């Protein structure tokens, strides 16, 4: 077992085993959480389904379990779930909601408890002993399903957003751009000038829509433009005033950042397998 480390490198007082068994609300349902693999396997009546957690959701669940029955403050959760990144409260709310949904705790909210104005707490009553059904080799384990929070919409009026799957340098660059937009920008920015530093980008202007594509290689950039063309055309139909849209793809996830002339930054994160399933309502909320 390895101790969890906090954002400043100090060890947390508890440790999380390689795998943790959780008792869920229904009598026949249990879950096995593997922090190092960002994997949650749910057993219901002996049938096991695997769910791949997002990086941040996995980190938050790991942190909460390590502090079972203790209140974990929001600032510590931000630091551990999104190390080195700037995020807002909506990102944390969405991640906790995704975890609860997988655990079947979205209604009762007794496994992960909200402590008003303080943070969250994991209820140790839902920690369980080892379960025989999970003692199967990786070769026979069911393939993990796409992460439940793979298609998530986070509406964020402040100028903070989390591009959790970007490289650290790209994430910091875009975070700086966003803050600059919110504090000083009233005109459109020359993104081609800004988006350098090892990234490849392309842009196009379609009426009121200024579209930017950002990737780590020319080949990925070309593929990104082709994959997101249907989304670009749909977004164009919702734009009512000048808007900047940034498309990027990292590790199987697409991220769409909508910047409303520096007044607000909103975004959509979606797994590549769910790209075509984004609804008109989700896209409309991003640009409006």
UniProtKB/TrEMBL annotation:
PROSITE patterns reported for this sequence: OMPR_PHOB
CDD domains: trans_reg_C
SUPFAM superfamilies found in the cross-reference section: C-terminal effector domain of the bipartite response regulators
Alphabetized SMART domains for the sequence: Trans_reg_C (SM00862)
Listed GO biological process terms: phosphorelay signal transduction system; regulation of DNA-templated transcription
UniProt keyword annotation of Phosphoprotein present: no
InterPro entries in the record: OmpR/PhoB-type_DNA-bd, Sig_transdc_resp-reg_C-effctor, WH-like_DNA-bd_sf
Single GO molecular function: DNA binding
DNA-binding region extent: 22-124
Keywords of this entry: DNA-binding
Signal peptide as annotated in the record: none
Domain OmpR/PhoB-type: 22-124
Protein's name according to its UniProt entry: OmpR/PhoB-type domain-containing protein
């Amino acid at each position: 077992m390895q101790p969890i480390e906090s954002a400043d490198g100090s060890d947390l007082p508890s440790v999380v085993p390689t795998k943790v068994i959780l008792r869920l609300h229904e009598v026949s349902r249990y879950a096995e959480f593997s922090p190092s693999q960002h994997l949650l396997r749910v057993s219901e009546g002996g049938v096991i389904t695997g769910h791949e957690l997002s990086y941040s959701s996995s980190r938050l669940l790991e942190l909460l379990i390590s502090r079972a029955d203790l209140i974990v403050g929001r600032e510590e959760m931000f630091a551990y779930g999104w190390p080195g990144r700037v995020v807002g409260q909506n990102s944390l709310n969405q991640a906790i909601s995704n975890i609860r949904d997988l655990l079947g705790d979205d209604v009762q909210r007794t496994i992960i408890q909200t402590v008003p104005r303080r943070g969250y707490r994991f209820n140790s009553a839902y920690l369980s002993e080892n379960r025989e059904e999970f003692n199967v080799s990786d070769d026979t384990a069911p393939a993990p399903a796409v992460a439940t929070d793979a298609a998530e919409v986070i509406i964020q009026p402040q100028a903070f957003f989390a591009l959790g799957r970007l490289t650290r340098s790209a994430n910091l660059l875009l975070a700086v751009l966003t803050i600059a937009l919110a504090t000083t920008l009233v005109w459109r920015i020359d993104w081609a000038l800004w988006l350098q530093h090892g990234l490849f980008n392309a842009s196009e202007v379609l009426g009121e829509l200024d579209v930017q594509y950002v990737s780590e290689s020319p080949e990925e950039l070309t593929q990104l433009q082709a994959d997101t063309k249907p989304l670009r055309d749909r977004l164009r139909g919702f734009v009512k005033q000048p808007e900047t849209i940034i498309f990027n793809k990292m590790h199987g996830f697409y991220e769409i950042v909508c910047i409303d002339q520096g007044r607000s930054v909103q975004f959509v994160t979606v797994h590549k397998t769910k790209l075509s399933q984004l609804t008109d309502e989700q896209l409309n909320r991003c640009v409006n």
